[in-house]
Design the sequence.
């Protein structure tokens, strides 16, 4: 029996909402989604316009600062990001060497991001004597570090995964990266580090069509309001932890196959199905709940995910460089079959962003267990925007995230000594 005074502070009115299906935990000015109409906008700009007219770096600026940059602002922003892209801290390189080379790429990425916290003691605002809020200068420096270092970190992880040593490429000069003729130098440099993206072996650098395709995919992944990993960033940040630890936790959330891990799971599913003739049997297994149609369904979209449309177009652009992957026929036939099947129609299950992205990554030459790393690379921009928004947002939203539970366990009982338990 709980005393009335205690009852007031511990219970009160509660909503029971597993998975936060209908619970808003913050306000935000970053991303708008209309799931019924299939609309996605970053800071008010439709995703289709950004994907066709902007670049990932320009869109990252938009997400972080709320407005599209002027030429001078973009150049300054890129200079600060690219400064961190040219090399990876020796301690992180050494740490990656201690992880099994055949470990899933995401385990290495999560470990390395968490370890970055140790290299940046300024990241812990408590050490600065500023409670949980560090200065704007410090926060910006952390954002530039994470955005800039991530592709280089990812490249090291992949090269180690592939058993190759990290190439000693001369770091490009900042002037080269900031050349206005290279608006997508962020992606271009990443592909150069890996020797990927060339239209034919022996060519000097990545094909501009491949650079553009990967840049557009990062842009499409950049933010998606309160998805599982972004919610994790806000959740972790609410305790006052530093941003490196928060994004390491978010990367863990993204790794799961129901979220960013779906990009890898879709490709494995398509490979398992193999041919169009096997689609009906696979769909029957899905309807019997023996399998999931990976890359289908979404908590918010009850209509076509507009990012899936973009990524499917990008896939065909990349196929012009490398030739079509036969699995695209399995994917399109699977989509056609699902969209004319009442099970999927009645549940409003449409392809999501992950349904076609793996085919693009595979065509470029990335291994399957690297696919979620590419998702993370794009989503980093959105995580940082939400982190900044939370820290600078209304005081009433700066509450430690601490959901309630409904206890269904036993009532109080007396401890039995082990010899009396029978
Ligand atoms: N395949 C088969 N059935 C599905 C699928 C699917 N991919 N998605 C949902 N359903 C069914 C469920 O079984 C359920 O059916 P029921 O009413 O008979 O029980 C119904 O549709 C509702 O599904 P929920 O699981 O309640 O939907 P929820 O919003 O909780 O889950 C999720 C959304 C996790 C994305 C789900 O659709 C799913 O698992 N999809 C496959 C994994 C995937 O592609 N994830 C990537 C999401 S996008 C992203 O993170 C970038």
Sequence:
């Amino acid at each position: 029996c709980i005393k009335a005074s205690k009852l007031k502070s511990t219970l009160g009115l509660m909503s029971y909402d597993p998975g936060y299906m209908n619970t808003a935990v913050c306000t935000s000015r970053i991303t708008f989604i209309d799931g019924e109409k299939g609309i996605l906008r970053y800071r008010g700009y439709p995703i289709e316009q950004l994907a066709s007219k902007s670049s990932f770096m320009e869109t990252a600026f938009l997400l972080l600062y709320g407005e599209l940059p002027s030429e001078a602002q973009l150049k300054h922003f890129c200079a600060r990001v690219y400064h961190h892209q040219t090399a990876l801290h020796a301690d992180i390189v050494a740490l990656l060497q201690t992880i099994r080379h055949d470990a899933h790429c995401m385990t290495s990425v999560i470990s390395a991001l968490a370890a970055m916290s140790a290299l940046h003691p300024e990241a812990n605002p408590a050490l600065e004597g500023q409670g949980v809020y560090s200065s704007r200068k410090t926060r910006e420096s952390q954002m530039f570090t994470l955005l800039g270092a991530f592709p280089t970190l990812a490249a090291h992880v992949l090269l180690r995964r592939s058993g190759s040593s990290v190439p000693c490429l001369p770091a490009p000069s900042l002037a080269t990266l900031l050349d206005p003729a290279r608006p997508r130098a962020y992606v271009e440099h990443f592909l150069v580090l890996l020797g990927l993206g060339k239209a034919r072996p022996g060519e000097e650098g990545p094909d501009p069509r491949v650079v553009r395709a990967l840049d557009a995919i990062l842009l499409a992944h950049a933010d998606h309001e309160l998805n599982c990993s972004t919610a994790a960033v806000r959740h972790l940040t609410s305790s006052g932890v530093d941003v490196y630890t928060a994004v390491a936790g978010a990367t863990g959330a993204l790794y799961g196959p129901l979220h960013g891990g779906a990009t890898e799971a879709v490709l494995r599913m398509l490979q398992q199905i193999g041919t169009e003739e096997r689609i009906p049997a696979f769909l029957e297994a899905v309807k019997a709940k023996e399998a999931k149609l990976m890359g289908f369904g979404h908590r918010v979209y009850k209509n076509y995910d507009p990012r899936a449309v973009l990524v499917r177009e990008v896939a065909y652009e990349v196929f012009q460089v490398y030739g079509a992957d036969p699995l695209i026929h399995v994917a399109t036939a699977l989509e056609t079959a699902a969209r004319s099947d009442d099970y999927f129609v009645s549940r409003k299950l449409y392809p999501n962003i992950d349904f076609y992205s793996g085919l693009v990554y595979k065509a470029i030459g990335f291994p399957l267990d690297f696919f979620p790393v590419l998702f993370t690379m794009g989503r980093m921009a959105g995580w940082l925007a939400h982190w900044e928004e939370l820290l600078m947002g209304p005081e009433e939203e700066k509450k430690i995230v601490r959901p309630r539970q409904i206890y269904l366990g036993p009532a109080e009982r007396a401890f039995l000594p082990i010899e009396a338990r029978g």
Summary: Residues 158 and 207 are 20 Å apart (CA to CA). The mean pLDDT is 92. The chain has 19 helices and three strands. The pocket of acetyl coenzyme *A is lined by residues 19, 227, 258-259, 262, 286, 292-299, 347, 349, 352-354 (CB under 6 Å).
